[in-house]
Design brief:
heterodimer, A: mainly beta, six-stranded mixed beta sheet, five-stranded antiparallel beta sheet, 11 strands, B: mainly beta, 10 strands, 47% strand, globular
Chain lengths: 109, 113
């Protein structure tokens, strides 16, 4: 089955800095790669996704890149703000979603 | 409109007891998913329902776990003879169709003592 590795497990940045979270996947058939943000006590919320026919997608301060050959994808957050602090999960799907273990992002004012 | 709701929000039970967790999906969503999230871990797929098709139970960890869904509405996840390792947050999600964006509920935190 699919296996998704996510790094780093924790990431601390200063407000205004950029943050990058990286994931690798094992199943070359996976064709959909969403990113979720989970705040304390809440369910995950989709923030951006990318499909395998696209190499990059951007939405305001967040962007995702996909390298199908290397089977890795990354989340980029620019101009980080304290409200970006949360746990971020990547996932990959061919049939069902397989999630990474999450990255706790802490943005300090 | 209303999002996915789950009840109870917290459940404490004794080892060996059965528990039922409930999920109310977004109205009109044909697909419904259950996940388990252990402390500090990612989400682990358990089961999904799509319309009237047979559910995909491939993620259920043991035969103590089962789930039902009535049509395209409420779903219940049942854990029989609970064990301490069942302690986790159980998340439900729904989507308009299988493979489309999943909307998650707030989860049920289960603690087995």
């Amino acid at each position: 089955g699919e296996n998704v590795e996510q790094h780093p497990s924790t990431l601390s940045v200063q407000e205004g800095d950029s943050a990058v979270i990286k994931c690798t996947y094992s199943d070359s058939a996976s064709n959909y790669f969403p990113w979720y943000k989970q705040e304390l006590g809440k369910g995950p919320q989709l923030i951006i996704d990318i499909r395998s026919n696209v190499g990059e997608k951007k939405d305001q301060r967040i962007a995702v890149t996909l390298n199908k050959t290397a089977k890795h994808f990354s989340l980029h957050i620019t101009e980080t703000q304290p409200e970006d602090s949360a746990v971020y999960f990547c996932a990959a799907r061919y049939s069902t979603l397989t999630f990474g273990k999450g990255t706790m992002l802490l943005v300090s004012p | 409109g209303a999002g996915v709701s789950q009840s109870p929000s917290n459940k404490v039970t004794e080892k060996g007891k059965d528990v039922e967790l409930r999920c109310d999906p977004i109205s009109g969503h044909t697909a419904l998913y259950w996940y388990r999230q252990r402390l500090g871990q990612g989400l682990e797929f358990l089961i999904y329902f799509q319309g009237n098709s047979a559910p995909d139970k491939s993620g259920l960890p043991s035969d103590r776990f089962s789930a039902e869904r009535t049509g395209e509405s409420v779903s219940t996840l049942t854990i029989q003879r609970t064990q301490q390792e069942d302690s986790a947050v159980y998340l439900c999600a729904s989507s308009l169709g299988f493979g489309e964006e999943q909307y998650f509920g707030p989860g049920t935190r289960l603690t087995v003592t």
